[in-house]
Amino acid sequence: MRMTTTTMTYTNILVEKQETSPGSGIYIGLVALNRPSALNALNNHLMQELVEAMQAFDKDDTVRAIVLSGSERAFAAGADIKEMADETTVSIMSKDNFATWDRVKAVKKPIVAAVSGFALGGGCELMMMCDMIVASETAQFGQPEVNIGVIPGAGGTQRLTHALGKYKAMEIILTGRPMTANEALQAGLVNKVVPVELYLEEAKNLAIQIASKSPVATQLAKEAILKAFDGSLDDGLRFERKNFYMLFSSEDQKEGMKAFMEKRKAKFVGR
Ligand code: DAK
What we know:
CATH class: Alpha Beta
Number of helices: 12
Strand order of the largest sheet: 1-2-3-4-6-8-11
Largest sheet: 7 strands, mixed
Bound molecules: 4-(N,N-dimethylamino)cinnamoyl-COA
């Protein structure tokens, strides 16, 4: 029987440590997004809590790997549209909330995403910031930002393109359509797909396997693998962010987000 201990109390996430085997003193860190009323939409408060928890695990020498999950219904349905709807290019740029997201990218320990249900927009981007992805058969992946008059802003145009290649990434981002778990598996976006009742356990098992290795070696391996993308990724991320900010000067962004909140189809005018 593996022991789990709850560490700190947060509002929008659940955080626990699980010992990898009894008495080993070696743990995996578990973080679950927990904002069910909004399908785990990633508002700023949730993101602050998430990076705090991840950084605490990063500093804790007994924790060797981290599992990030949501619920069965939703990993996360995106960044919080209601929080963003009234932003302008200047207001959203000056808030610079991407700085919080960048801190996920800075976590040194390996992170396994355990994904079930919706992983859309910022939810898919957060998932792609993790290092391995275990999906349930019910998972749906996508970048539906074009439906609300914007584009991915937290790495989707870059990381999805690295994972899927140009043509598939174009289709997914420009149409906004979701991919099934099996399509994502075939396209190389996820490591494995398992029945819904197993996805969390499988993700934990992967993390436990990694936790049994030298933590110095696994962290330095992670750092080196990420270097394979780094130069071009950073330029691409900056470019994507600029275009994302620019769209907050468009009527289509205002209409798209308003239409989502009013539960109707958006009427885009192209300016
Ligand atoms: N934001 C806010 N609320 C959301 C949400 C979201 N992304 N997704 C769902 N909800 C809320 C719904 O409004 C609804 O709330 P109530 O009406 O009950 O108050 C509740 O969650 C349940 O959702 P639904 O009633 O819509 O549930 P359905 O099963 O009918 O539909 C759905 C599920 C996932 C298909 C649908 O909710 C949906 O289309 N959601 C939006 C998906 C989406 O467009 N996601 C991309 C968002 S844009 C940034 C970082 C990242 C990003 C931007 C900036 N910075 C750091 C600056 C990323 C942007 C995005 O992700």
